[in-house]
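[audit] Reproducing an earlier prediction to check determinism. Same input, same settings, fresh worker. If the tokens differ from the archived copy the diff job will pick it up downstream; this log only records the rerun itself.
[audit] input (267 residues):
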Amino acid sequence: MPAVEAWAIEPLRVQFETLLPPHVDTHPWGCHNPRIPDRVVFDKLVAKIVFGSSYEKHADASCSATTIRARRNAWITAGVFDRLEQIVLEAYDRIVGLDLADITVDGQITKAPCGGEAAGKSPIDRGKLGIKWSRLTDGSGIPPPLLRPTLEKLGRFELALPEVMRVHLDAGYDSKITRELLAELGCGWQIQPKGEVIPINHTRRWVVERTNSWYSRGFNLTLSCTERREVVINAHLAVISAIIVIRRLVREAWTTHRWDTRPRRRP
């Protein structure tokens, strides 16, 4: 079973390969073993992100765990993953359009049994180690790359930001600090008051809950993260976000565009 369906991973793989820096062979005699193709390593890395487990579990005769880690680190240093996520989001905005007038933010806690730079005591799991994600989506559930870091990251994209952006949050963000931050960033807000029960289908927050399920049901990393370095976690999240956005882009463009590798049925 492939980690990601071919119609979604192939355009991502092609774009990824165009971002890779040229390889320079530093061996004085040029006697290295044949270099493992970047495509093979990328597929192994995607499988690790989707299915979880260790790098050794996904290594085989074609590619070792050491090679996966080394190539991953080189790509992180070159900024390939951040650039990939940015290109995919800009493509979605150009073809479909991001709805940034109403954005939604929600949190999610993931187990972190190995600890690491981003881990801390989980408030919902007897103090065991966990990682708190803060996820932002546009009006239709597309995840641009929290509260401050997420909103400030929108500035790195060449997007036509609306004059007024309204942020929808649940009762966990009902505080003076959150309102001061949103006012500082020039955003409006709609926050569910603490102690008041409002069905989620009566608000605009349902889109971020749907996006959370895309992350949790499709990628093991967001259920149990064993990575310890924050830069590696961010790189994996960039790949996950790129895959999710590509899936939505193909689905939305299926009825309006035609291309050679277009799926026969709407995904």
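[audit] rerun output stored. Observation attached for the diff report: The CA atoms of residues 113 and 129 lie 6 Å apart.
[audit] end
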